[in-house]
From TrEMBL:
Keywords: Membrane, Transmembrane, Transmembrane helix. This is Copper ABC transporter permease. It holds the Pfam family YfhO. It comes from the Bacteria. The chain crosses the membrane at residues 56-76, 83-103, 109-127, 134-154, 160-190, 202-226, 265-286, 298-321, 327-345, 357-376, 388-406, 418-440, 810-835.
């Protein structure tokens, strides 16, 4: 891995980083936030730096649970790319070490042969093709140890390895823990079937050990499951029987060297684990030295996995009945493990007088490779080239030649093992190079400078904002974001987030209020909303690399090309209102109407704040404008791969903030379509289907005629509701926000707690902009009071009249029970193991 990365220009301190795909926007920032936790800058249970706030314990359970994650402690957040590079090498190396330990205690093979298997295992295509997904890599260390643990329970009655391996797996990653858990239960029954008389005594020890490990792991799994049940995605519907992209020759095609299709949509399973393991695995099933019952038992696991590649219900089952978002067939590494595990058994049963079975297999495999390439429809496997086929055949013959020389007694066994290790290593290097180049083509390895260069200036401005606000809570957002999760790394509370672990209800509510968070709210974006939402959510600061032409925002600091702006009308974390809050009705599919309703309720006004006007088209470039029914308009390019530009004029009355409203007619056809609005010397580019619809045109003190341009990229045509210009009356905005802020409650936030002192002449409802979660508890003067959600999204509670000290504290639901179960599971296993040990002695 080190040398393949080096061949791509990736090394310690290199400009090209390992940050490909989600590693740039998600994993780098999440690891940076864990670094903040380890240095005492953030609670391990709750983070204010994830959108409006998030259950951080649940985030750890999926993204950060590995035992190597604390290594980030030794890095500063600017150098997280180096941390992920190091973690990648350590985790893949640990997978190889674990398989070596498994092989050493399982097979009767030379040490060189075991190392060959461990190299092949740790560099299987599934690992290297998904090597940018850092949180997946831990689990490959545990799989061989769990299988070895099962063997030890069945053969020797020893269960410590199994207990520890299961426990660490489940704590590290509950998602892959489920897949491996299911597979290893199947493995136990398959091995039980090979000798039921001898192994039936292991049924109770195996399930008891597994149960105790499962109970102990509840410290992570129970809070994660409860959080997912409340805030996660819904289960996927089964709409077809056969999986979408799979074809007849998939198993043969994906066992060739260097075959990389994609890790996006439409991929087929990554199952390659090496030519030599494939040959010896096939040998396992044809040699007469291995019992038929063993072949049937383990073959049934192959049948189950292959069926799962093709049958959608089984495929969904392995994924917890939730279809993966890209990176398909996430359980396919189990096929690779089964291949290499049985290859070890085949290899130890191979001898000079094997009857020509291995040579026969070696001659058959190239034929299958050629048949797959020549008979498959060209459109099915267009990613497979003749080079892939020839390389694979070449390595088959290299192994055959070495083995034939061994059988002819021209090559001693030890030299054969060393020669095979060299060939396996060369093959693994070659395949890994193809996989990493596939990632480069598919996703690109981002330049370190994109992540690290803005850091000093960004950090300087976020620190300035912290000092300016001292102990009062505030939110900050960027108009020039580096990624969608910057707030994790820089330690500020924002709105944008891209994460599988999120508060779906609060994001959905923010979508209703104009922030873009569609579908299951995997994404939420700050860009392109109104001043009202800035102020209601307490966005007191913006960072921008251009002038921020927003009413009430003034520049207060500068660092490099970035400036820090302050919003004079930002609301604090809480606001006092009355119980009519819960009766507030939001109009459907009208985010400005929803904003108006919420503003009027909190301010006790009955006003309207937005008006609409149609801008006049004065010029177009490379654009055909087609008017369609139902007030839709189509902007169609005239020349390919050139942006579409439309220039407008619009009259803006004095005292208005103006926005261009871009609402797509069909989100599914946008793909990667982007829009840039150029107005008054500023231009912000954003992805249309991810960011909001209100593109800022600026604030106008006097009556003005504004000329602005809309530039569209990425798709040949874009369908919009005929774009109006929205005018927001800043005088009314100012009056409403001042009234709301008169009832505002400032909170001092630290760790997982928020504290405030308030005084009210009558009973009130305190609405916070903290995402509602059952983990929150509220105390008024030390007495616990009930909490209530507003629109399933915000945390609210009643406050009696008078002066009160209020304390909000968060503890992940299920954590206390999980901690008790953790202690109970370990104690129970210890007692059980002590009992078994004494029984053996007696």
């Amino acid at each position: 891995m080190f040398f393949v990365y080096l061949s791509l220009g990736i090394y310690w301190g290199s400009d090209r980083s390992v940050l490909a795909s989600d590693a740039f926007s998600q994993f780098s920032n999440f690891h940076a936030s864990f670094n903040n936790v380890m240095h005492g800058k953030q609670s391990i249970f709750y983070t204010w730096n994830a959108s409006l706030g998030l259950n951080y314990w649940s985030l750890i359970s999926y993204y950060l649970g590995g035992i190597f994650t604390p290594i980030v402690f030794f890095f500063n957040n600017q150098n997280i790319p180096d941390a992920l590079y190091l973690l990648t090498l350590i985790k893949i190396g640990s997978a190889g070490l674990a398989f070596w330990y498994f092989g050493k205690n399982t097979y009767k093979l030379s040490q060189w042969s075991i190392i060959s298997l461990s190299v092949a295992y740790s560099l299987m295509s599934f690992i290297t093709a998904h090597s940018e997904l850092i949180m997946w890599l831990d689990i490959f260390m545990y799989l061989p140890l769990i299988v070895l643990g099962i063997n030890q329970v069945m053969d020797k009655g020893k269960s410590i390895l199994l207990f520890v391996s299961y426990l660490l797996l489940f704590i590290s990653n509950f998602y892959f823990g489920f897949m491996i858990g299911v597979f290893t239960v199947g493995y136990f029954f398959a091995r039980l079937a090979t000798n039921p008389k001898a192994y039936k005594k292991a049924i109770v020890p195996y399930f008891a050990t597994s149960l105790f490990a499962g109970i102990s792991s509840m410290i992570m799994i129970l809070p994660a499951v409860l959080d997912l049940k409340t805030n996660g995605e819904t289960l996927s519907e089964m709409t077809r029987l056969k999986t979408e992209a799979t074809s007849f020759w998939d198993i043969i095609i994906k066992n060739m060297i260097g075959v990389f299709d994609t890790t996006k949509y439409g991929s087929i399973p990554f199952i390659y684990v090496g030519i030599l393991p494939l040959l010896f695995c096939l040998f396992y099933f044809v040699t007469k030295k291995i019992k038929t019952v063993n072949k049937i038992a383990y073959g049934s696991l192959f049948i189950l996995l292959i069926a799962s590649f093709y049958l959608e219900p089984l495929n969904l089952f392995w994924h917890g009945f939730h279809a993966p978002n890209m990176f398909l067939f996430r359980f396919s590494f189990l096929f690779s493990f089964l291949v290499i595990m049985l290859a070890g058994y085949g290899w130890e049963n191979f001898s000079k007088d094997d009857g020509g079975y291995l040579v026969g297999i070696g001659l058959l495999v190239p034929v299958l490779f050629l048949l797959a390439k020549l008979t498959a429809p060209k459109t099915s496997y267009d990613f497979v080239t003749s080079t892939h086929v020839l390389m694979s055949i070449l390595f088959v013959f290299l192994y055959l030649i070495a083995i034939i020389f061994y059988q002819l007694k021209k090559l001693p066994g030890k030299r054969l093992a060393i020669l095979l290790l060299l060939i396996v290593s060369g093959e693994a290097f070659l395949n890994t190079s193809y996989m990493l180049n596939g990632i480069l083509d598919d996703w690109n390895y981002a330049s370190r400078s994109l992540y690290s260069d803005p850091y000093p200036n960004y950090k300087k401005l976020t620190d300035t904002a912290d000092k300016a606000n001292k102990d009062e809570f505030y939110r900050l957002e960027s108009l020039a974001p580096i990624s969608s999760n910057d707030s994790f790394s820089y330690g500020y509370s924002g709105i944008s987030m891209f994460s599988s672990i999120r508060n779906r209800h609060s994001s959905t509510f923010l979508n209703d209020l104009g922030y873009r968070s569609r579908g299951t709210s995997l994404n939420i974006r700050y860009q392109n909303n109104t001043l009202f939402m800035d102020s209601l959510l307490g966005v007191k600061h913006n960072i921008s690399d251009q002038k921020v032409n927003k009413y009430g925002f003034t520049s207060v600091a500068k660092a490099g090309k970035y400036q820090l702006y302050e919003n004079d009308l930002a609301m604090p974390l809480g606001v006092l209102t009355d119980d009519t809050l819960y009766k507030t009705k939001f109009p459907k599919n009208d985010n400005l109407g929803a904003q108006t309703a919420l503003i009027n309720q909190l301010s006790n006004f009955e006003d309207s704040y937005f008006t609409f006007t149609k801008p006049t088209v004065v010029e177009t470039k490379n654009t055909q404008i087609i008017n369609k029914p139902n007030n839709h308009v189509l902007f169609k390019e005239q020349k390919s791969n050139i942006g579409k530009t439309i220039t407008y004029d619009v009259f803006v009355p004095a005292g208005n903030q103006a926005y261009l409203s871009l609402f797509p007619g069909d989100f599914s056809k946008l793909e990667s379509s982007s829009a840039t609005v150029l107005s008054q010397g500023t231009s912000y580019k954003s992805q249309i289907n991810i960011t909001g619809q209100y593109y800022n045109l600026g604030y106008f003190e006097k009556d003005s005629t504004l000329r602005f341009s809309l530039e569209l990229y990425g798709t040949k045509e874009v369908d919009f509701i005929d774009p109006p210009v929205v005018m927001m009356d800043t005088n009314k905005y100012q009056s409403a926000m001042k009234e709301i802020n008169n009832q505002g409650v400032d909170f001092n936030v630290h760790g997982r707690k928020a504290e405030a002192t308030i005084e009210t002449p009558e009973d009130k409802v305190l609405m916070t902009t903290i995402p509602y979660d059952k983990g929150w508890s509220v105390k008024v003067d030390g007495k616990k009071v009930p909490t209530k959600d507003f629109k399933d999204a915000f945390l609210t509670f009643n406050v009696p009249k008078g002066k009160h000290d209020i304390t909000l504290s968060f503890l992940p639901p299920g954590l206390t029970i999980g901690a008790l179960l953790f202690a109970l599971g370990i104690a129970s296993f210890s007692g059980y193991y002590y009992f078994i040990l004494n029984k053996k002695k007696n």
